[in-house]
């Protein structure tokens, strides 16, 4: 499943496209997708878990984070707690505390932790804004590095070395 959202950011429209791989591991499809190169073009990894199901947080640490580290090791990660509205549901015996989730986010090297819920769409706009902002910053940072490399190359090719002497 995929879905996308256009987020205006710094005079640009950033299209945030999410690919939901839930259940793919169960069917053995997750690894196959990576072998086929489905991860190319990925700029951010969202590791989502169900706040009302502590086992799903353990899956992030034990299953999804190792997969991301194997196949997407240079890609920034965001930990996302879903179903925030169920945290205080009296029918649930346990839920994941923000403290526990934040600790895991630090352990796995996530750049941020967000909590969301489909009820009222709480936290989703903030998450998408953060993603768009991070992508714009990352792209401009890479462009700056590229410009510096081009600039150094032009300086060398013009016959002037880094010391200023003619080459």
Automatic annotation (TrEMBL):
Q: Which GO terms describe its molecular function?
A: GTP binding; GTPase activity
Q: Which GO terms describe its biological process?
A: small GTPase-mediated signal transduction
Q: Which domain of life is it from?
A: Eukaryota
UniProt keyword annotations, A-Z: GTP-binding, Hydrolase, Nucleotide-binding
Please indicate if the UniProt record lists Hydrolase as a keyword: yes
Please name the InterPro entries in this protein's record.
P-loop_NTPase, Small_GTPase, Small_GTPase_Rho
Name of the protein in question: P-loop containing nucleoside triphosphate hydrolase protein
């Amino acid at each position: 499943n995929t879905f996308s959202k256009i987020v205006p950011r710094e005079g640009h429209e950033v299209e945030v496209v999410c690919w939901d791989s839930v259940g793919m591991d169960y069917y053995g499809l997750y690894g196959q997708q990576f072998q086929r190169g489905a991860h190319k073009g990925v700029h951010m990894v969202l590791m989502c878990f169900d706040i009302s199901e502590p086992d799903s947080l353990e899956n992030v640490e034990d299953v999804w984070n190792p997969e991301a580290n194997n196949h997407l090791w240079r890609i920034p990660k965001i930990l996302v707690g879903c179903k925030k509205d169920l945290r205080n549901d009296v029918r649930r015996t346990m839920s994941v505390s923000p403290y526990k989730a934040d600790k895991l986010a630090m352990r796995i090297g996530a750049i941020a932790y967000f909590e969301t819920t489909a009820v009222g769409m709480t936290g989703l706009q903030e998450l998408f804004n953060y993603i768009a902002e991070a992508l714009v910053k990352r792209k401009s940072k890479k462009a700056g590095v590229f410009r510096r490399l081009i600039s150094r190359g032009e300086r060398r090719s013009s016959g002037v070395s880094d010391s200023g002497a003619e080459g």
